[in-house]
Design goal:
2 domains; D-Maltodextrin-Binding Protein, domain 2; two-stranded antiparallel sheet; 408 residues; 13 helices; alpha/beta
Length: 408
């Protein structure tokens, strides 16, 4: 575990984990470094023709940053945790940071035009692009872009038709954590918390959010192919109903639905929970506090998150905005953010600079095969994300209603 330990978790508790911290799973070809504005259809919308910056001029003297807590630390939370001050000294851009608590809040704040850059999660990125609130990013202007892990570039949550709309920041997977004294043999499948949940009746835990429906869909995708699920975020009415039925059966064995990392750590320490969904950093904290736990990426893969720095189409300080996006994805800044926040850095050169020399190994930062098993969180929309056009898919409103039904 990193030297920042549970201090970083204080940021996570109100950061990317509160809302849908990441994005849609899938692939697209190519890796654009810019050269014009984008106008293409993707994800059921048309990207507006927003111009892209072609050079970086003189710094404006300030930059207004909208960020998840823990992504733009200036020493005010902890004097030893400060990567904003070096940026200000290096560029002459005063960083004015505002934290947000949910992706919905970030989307609304970006509409004001008051912020130059935003650390957008996957359930926000396509909304920001479709509304014309963010601009295509000219990655030729970013000196650190070449060092970003290739498997994070030109993905459905940060690009449209091969044009990048942001710079990858950090990512991670949702894992299956279990009590090694109780759960034997060690699980290899999400089936341990679904079809096999009765083996641990009253001691199963699950993430408390409608997006958790995707975890059930992912399991059904692997175990009930006749349902035809190709993307856990693209569910028609019948597929959603199947996922809800599975979750209702699971609920009979659930001890609690968690969103507060402290409560999950405590539940595993006390034995109230013995198996359920977690994050790598929570597993590390629980182990550090003496809980007999371990965590795995099950054979079906998992859901997860990948965040992106984006620039406003109304940026008043676009030059400082570009300088910030370049700086925050530098190896030095990425090493600090990744350890503090508890996620894999997008810039793999950060791996030689982390205080914990095994940090990137623990978080699989350079493991493309591992990353490829993650179906990144995204907001379901009525246009099926798996490409189907002969049926209407359920949207996040449907999922919210369904989650209320599951929990009763």
């Amino acid at each position: 575990m990193s030297k920042f330990g549970s201090r970083r978790l204080a940021a996570v508790a109100c950061a990317g984990v509160l809302a849908l911290a990441a994005t849609a799973c899938g692939t697209s070809s190519g890796d654009s470094s810019g050269g014009g504005s984008a106008d293409a259809k993707q994800g059921g919308f048309t990207a507006p023709d927003v111009p892209m910056q072609d050079s970086i001029g003189d710094p404006e003297g300030q930059v207004n940053i909208l960020a998840w807590p823990g992504y733009a630390e200036d020493g005010s939370t902890d004097k030893s945790v400060d990567w904003v001050t070096p940026f200000e000294k290096e560029t002459g851009c005063q960083a004015n940071v505002k934290y947000f608590g949910t992706s919905d809040e970030a989307v609304q704040l970006m509409k004001s035009g008051e912020y130059d850059v935003v650390s957008a999660s996957g359930d926000a990125t396509l909304r920001l692009i479709a509304a014309g609130d963010v601009a295509p990013v000219n990655t030729d202007l970013l000196t650190n872009y070449a060092d970003i892990a290739p498997f994070l570039k030109d993905r459905p949550w940060n690009s449209v038709d091969g044009q990048m709309y942001g710079v990858p920041h950090g990512w991670g997977a949702n894992l299956l954590m279990y009590n090694t004294d109780v759960v034997k043999p060690a699980p290899t499948s999400w089936g341990a918390v679904f079809d096999g949940a009765s083996d641990y009746a009253g001691k199963v835990t699950a993430y408390d959010s409608p997006i958790y429906i995707a975890d059930a869909a992912l399991y059904l995708m692997a175990t009930q192919p006749d349902l035809g699920i190709k993307d856990p975020y693209a569910l028609d009415q019948d597929q959603l109903a199947a996922a809800v039925d599975l979750l209702k059966k699971q609920k009979e064995n659930v001890s609690e639905y968690w969103s507060d990392y402290l409560k999950e750590v405590q539940a595993f320490k006390s034995g109230d929970s013995v198996i359920g969904t977690t994050w790598e950093v929570i597993n590390a904290v629980a182990q550090g506090e003496g809980a007999p736990v371990d965590a795995i990426l099950p054979k079906e893969g998992s859901t997860g998150w990948s965040d992106t720095w984006m620039i406003s189409s109304q940026a008043q300080n676009p030059n400082c905005g570009y300088l910030w996006m370049d700086y925050i994805t530098s190896p030095q800044a990425q090493a600090q953010v990744a350890e503090y926040f508890g996620e894999a850095p997008a810039n793999t050169k950060a791996c030689t600079l982390t205080s914990d020399k095994k940090f990137c190994e623990t978080y699989h930062a350079e493991d493309a095969a591992y990353a490829d098993q993650i179906h990144y969180w995204t907001t379901p929309i009525s246009q099926c994300l798996d490409g189907r056009t002969d049926v209407q898919c359920t949207d996040y409103g449907d999922w919210t209603t369904a989650w209320t039904e599951v929990k009763g």
